[in-house]
From TrEMBL:
Family: Belongs to the group II decarboxylase family.
One BP annotation, GO: carboxylic acid metabolic process
GO-annotated molecular function: carboxy-lyase activity; pyridoxal phosphate binding; transaminase activity
UniProt entry tagged with the keyword Lyase: yes
Protein name: Aspartate aminotransferase family protein
Modified residues (N6-(pyridoxal phosphate)lysine): K296
Species annotation: Erythrobacter mangrovi
Cofactor list: pyridoxal 5'-phosphate
Length: 469
């Protein structure tokens, strides 16, 4: 069939996609595509046809090609990385966002997309209990959220040091010192590079056992530096331990030295949604900016993150575009004023829909349940011989080593769990040790599921240790 104007009326393709989606979501797919042979040519590897094919057939072929290579990240047993489970309300909203084909850049290009972002931005600040006057940019994820927030930071600290960044750029600017834990998330180091900062400006501060700042070392570094402009990048939810910086101390140091405080809270910032657990992130609201993901703990479908900046004017100055044909809106929101891109997907619809669907209490309950589950798993593993629970459990991250008479069996436990098809876990090297990581972030994870996981891990381990003996 040739591509003709009818191809834009191919509603059968939409119906088929909905049907395939339902089937996938309710079906029991293997969680680990690593089980599929890698070398084999994939179903995608076919010639580009000269004439176009019927959209419905293409969608059927896409589904068939993709299935063997899909990671089960929407399933409760997926604990390999910090990845959310794509809430159904978000998926449905995303379908509509694509159906409506809105360009979310300006108020005029899609008033609905601007209104959805404005409304959900206010809810986000409320749930995270951050300064209500802060501005929120809807980014692809926490990496670009940090990029956005740190661009605002760069502008502000250079301006305070008497340098007009907008006119002069980075040329001849005063020295900027960036303080980050030596165990900070790698994406922050990339972001610093995109922003024009090199290794000599980055002070890698020694970290405590949980990867967060050794505040005494931070203070010493800040005292010994003779610079006019400083940025501190702190963590809420260190990727291995789930650890939090001491924001009371870190923010006091930032105040003393006139530093901008940014918080990488990609997943950990959501602890603020829990009245019972929010003390872990006490005084985090004293920072100047925060980056947090929507697609991890909040279960928004990929991709979605938030750049939150206390000084809204500074945020806009760092990101807004000026051109004759772009209207300058004062009282309505131009989404593009808060992110690097101009044209983009209307992410606000999915955020609005997921937050409405979960509600304040639903978000709070999910965060607490995932943290409880992690504690439960830690408690049950801790008393088993040969098992070393390495981190203090603050949140939803657990790092465990399994050894039997000097033999490191951690990797073996991981492959045993993955071979069941019910679980997906990964190992990582951290501080010279191989560790199995459990990241409990999938919205579909229930209490019952966790109890069976606990039982399975115990059984596997005791069985493995017995056979190794
Ligand atoms: C995932 C993660 C990031 C990066 O976020 P993306 O959404 O992948 O861009 C940054 N910091 C931490 C702590 C993370 O867990």
């Amino acid at each position: 069939m040739s591509a003709d104007p009818d191809c834009f009326a191919a509603n059968e393709a939409l119906e088929l996609a909905a049907q395939l989606a339902l089937e996938y979501r309710s079906g029991a797919a293997a969680l680990d595509p690593g089980a599929a042979p890698r070398a084999e040519a994939s179903g995608f590897d076919i010639p580009l046809p000269r004439r176009g094919r019927e959209a419905r057939k293409v969608i059927a072929a896409l589904d068939a090609a993709a299935r063997p290579g899909l990671t089960g990240s929407t399933k409760p047993g997926f604990m390999g990385w910090v990845i959310g489970g794509s809430h159904p309300a978000g998926i449905a909203a995303d379908w509509l966002a694509a159906t409506w084909g809105q360009n979310a850049c300006l108020y005029d290009s899609s008033p609905a997309a601007a209104q959805a972002e404005a409304a959900s931005a206010a809810w986000l600040l409320d749930v995270l209990d951050l300064p209500r006057e802060a501005s929120v940019g809807f980014t692809t994820g926490a990496t670009m959220a940090a990029f956005t927030a740190l661009a605002a930071a760069r502008l502000a600290v250079l301006e305070r040091a008497g340098h007009d960044f907008e006119t002069k750029g980075l040329f001849g600017c005063p020295e900027v010192a960036i303080y980050i834990s030596d165990d900070g998330h790698v994406t922050n180091y990339s972001v610093l590079r995109y922003l024009g900062f090199g290794d000599e400006q980055i002070r890698r501060i020694p970290s405590l056992a949980d990867g967060t700042f050794d505040c005494t070392a931070l203070e010493q570094a800040m005292r010994s530096d003779r610079v006019e402009a400083r940025i501190v990048i702190a963590q809420a939810g260190q990727i291995m331990s789930g650890g939090f910086d001491d924001f009371t101390r870190v923010s006091a140091l930032c105040r003393e030295f006139g530093a901008w405080l940014h918080v990488d809270g990609a997943f950990g910032l959501w602890v603020r949604a829990s009245r019972r657990l929010r003390h872990i992130a006490h005084n985090i609201d004293l920072a100047d900016s925060w980056s947090v993901d929507g697609h991890k703990w909040l279960q928004i479908p990929y991709d979605c993150g938030f750049a939150i900046v206390r000084d809204q004017r500074c945020h806009r100055r760092a990101m807004a575009m000026q051109a004759g044909y772009l209207p300058d809106m004062r009282d309505t929101r131009n989404n593009a004023d808060f992110v690097p891109e101009l044209s983009r997907r209307a992410r606000g619809f999915a955020v609005w829909a997921v937050m409405q669907s979960m509600g304040r209490l639903g978000i709070e309950r999910m965060v607490e349940e995932h943290c409880n589950a992690t504690h439960l798993l830690a408690q049950s593993l801790r008393h088993l011989p040969g098992v070393d629970v390495v981190n203090t459990v603050y949140l939803n991250q657990l790092a465990v080593a399994f050894t039997h008479e000097d033999a490191d069996l951690t990797e073996m436990v991981a492959s045993h769990l993955n071979a069941t098809g019910r679980y997906f876990v990964r190992t990582a090297d951290w501080r010279g040790r191989k560790l199995l990581r459990f990241s409990i972030t999938c919205g579909a994870t229930t209490d019952t599921f966790i109890r069976s996981l606990v039982g399975d891990v115990e059984r596997f381990w005791l069985d493995l240790a017995r056979r190794a003996a």
